[in-house]
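Figure 2 data, in text form.
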Amino acid sequence: MAKPHLQTPEREKKMTAHSKEKDKSLRAHILYLLQGGGAHAKFDEVIKGIPAELRSKQPGGLPHSLWMLLEHMRIAQWDILEFSRNRKHVSPQWPDGYWPKTEAPSSPAAWNESIKKFRADLKAMENLVRNSKTDLFAKIPWGDGQTILREALLVADHNAYHLAQMVDVRRLLGAWPK
């Protein structure tokens, strides 16, 4: 059986110049969203310059610290990516498995490692979308109707939502640039 996300040779042959241009345009739009395009804050802008002492603070009744939001984004993005490309992947238990156990990173190295892994998994999702051999519309065989297109949009949407929360937390902590 062909890999679920790869174009079949038959499908590639049927693509006209017009449909190839549409496909290229769709991929560019998805990449734009994944990278924080448009009205969305970009990941690197949101995490830049966060003082270590504020990473565990939960301001004014909000339920999450910056660390909790970062780790949640990393875990969810990793899960979506692995589901998209690995038949044997087992998702964490919902909802507890998608959140860190602590309000604070165990060390500055843990914070940096979370950022590094987030970036690597985002890049891997971007590469999956960027690859013209990836069939964005093919159903993932081990799913229940999901496609790579849906999963990439889910990553973009989920990240945008929680990046906005991080901006709000930073504002309430007085750590967002004016």
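Caption note: Helices lie at 9-14, 17-34, 43-47, 66-85, 108-130, 148-172.
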